[in-house]
Amino acid sequence: MISKKTYTYQSIINELSSYSIDPIIKLGLFRVEDALKKLNFSFEFPTIHIAGTNGKGSTSAFLANILQHSGLKVGVYTSPHILKFNERIAVLEKNISDENIVKHYTKIFKTIRKNELTPFEIITIMAFLEFKDKKIDIAVVETGLGGRLDATNVIKPLISIITNINLEHKSYLGKTIESIAKEKAGIIKAKIPVVSAVKQKNVLKLFKEITNRQKAPLYVLCKEFFIRKNKNCYNYKGIYNELKNIELSLKGEWQKENVSLVLAAIEILKKKYGYNINDKAILEGVKTTKIQGRFELISFEPKIVVDVAHNLASIKRLFLFLQKKYGGDNILIIGLSKDKSYKSILKFAAKNFKFIILTEGKEPRLLKAETLYKETIKYTKNAFCLPNILDAKKKAIELYSKEKLICVTGSFFIIEEFLKIKDL
User: Fold this and answer.
1) Which own/partner pairs from 227-236 qualify as long-range (CB within 8 Å, at least 24 positions apart)?
2) Which value, to the nearest 10 degrees, does the dihedral of the CA atoms of residues 237, 238, 240, 244 take?
């Protein structure tokens, strides 16, 4: 039965949050394709599609900001949010309004039967409706999970960007790097250029096989384009052009990789599609990009950094950057989702942070702090089990001294709840 209910912003957020956790993820494109057909929706704006294990959010932010500095009206669809749901859908860096969420959600459920769509599919369709209403020039669209069967894969982009591939979401994407890479590579379309930072030989071989079959040009970091540090800046040697003295706004050595992907994509937009994007717009866009929760220093005393690292690869690079910038003896507050390989993450964390505080917050998709604690004490005595995030913050401040740093990481849910805590 088609819904005749009157919705409010809060009732919509409550409904999206109330879907059963398992199975909350249903991979496949047919539901979204059918829904868009029923809504008589057609894409009237070009898109760029971004998949990968880590760096999708930062890559999307850099790309969107450069395009906006070039005078384009840019829509951005990312997930998940940090503080408010509306962050997932934005046009010209302005989040979708509460009123438009109600408008699009109501439109969907005047046409689509209840329970036919997953929450992510609903949100994806809402993003497309918002972008069409706002008459955007181009959309930057980030996959939610995987690529091949991700709800966003109904688009036919100008460029496909695949940041990197590491083990994640093994229950849905497969238990090996190769199987996960195959799912991510599902966003590759016939004759559409692909830009990637994948490094593993077996993954590169797979990508080359797929792109050759699809007759899609493949551009790979450290092969077709390069980025090098130059004192406090970076120099880029690209597919067609070079760019020097690039200043990055976002901290973390890994951001140079994300920026290089964006610069390669910009070159293709200019060369293949005729976009007018000058060096000034590129440099200013990269220099002024901001995104919450990506190595964000939120307090100077005590020194607290939040970062949404949520798998082993991102935790490792976060630690290496912390060690290089701040030295050792750091305090870690961490909570992890149930679909993460928590044992390997905690083994690494316990050996590389002086104190580990295990927490869980209120989100049911997070592992119990007690489960994390039992694993962590196999490797360190300096572990504390504090399910309540406020208690975890209090304990971290108690352990803190000026030569140390508090790092909060492990899940978007943890960062969200931590940032909402009022100052102690």
Assistant:
1) 227/256, 227/257, 227/259, 227/260, 227/263, 229/256, 234/259, 236/260, 236/263
2) -50
DSSP 304-354: EEE----SHHHHHHHHHHHHHHH-S--EEEE--BTTS-HHHHHHHHHHH-S
Q: What is the pLDDT confidence band of residue 338, given thresholds at 50, 70 and 90?
A: confident
Question: 206 with 181: CB under 8 angstroms?
Answer: yes
**Per-residue pLDDT for 87 more than 60?**
yes
Paired with 2 in beta bridges are 113
Mean local confidence (pLDDT), 140-169: 89
Sorted by sequence, the CB contacts under 8 Å of residue 279 that are 6+ apart come out as 243
Give the span between the Cα atoms of 237 and 224, in whole angstroms: 9
- Angle in degrees, CA 131, 168, 81, rounded to 5: 35
Contact by Cβ (8 Å): 232, 247: yes
Q: Is residue 376 over pLDDT 90?
A: yes
Per-residue CA distances from 164 to 174, 197, 220, 258, 369 (Å): 16, 5, 11, 10, 29
The confidence score (pLDDT) of residue 23 equals 45
125: closest CA among 154, 84, 91, 158? 154
Can you tell me the mean pLDDT for 269-277? 98
Residue 324: the pLDDT is: 80
* Count of residues in the chain: 424
- Name 345's Cβ contacts closer than 8 Å, sequence gap at least 6: 311, 312, 315, 334, 336, 410
pLDDT at 21: 42
Residue among 237, 232, 261, 260 at smallest CA distance from 247: 232
Helical spans, DSSP H, in 134-174: 170-173
Q: Token match 């792109």: residue? A: 211
**Tens of pLDDT along 226-238?**
999 988 899 999 9
Residues 6+ apart with CB under 8 A from 161: 48, 49, 50, 51, 52, 59, 63, 194, 195, 196, 261, 262, 265
Coil, strand or helix at 400: coil
Q: Are 19 and 364 in contact (CB under 8 A)?
A: no
* Euclidean distance between CA atoms 249 and 284, whole angstroms: 10
Q: What is the pTM of this model?
A: 0.89
Helix (H) or strand (E) holding 243: strand 242-246
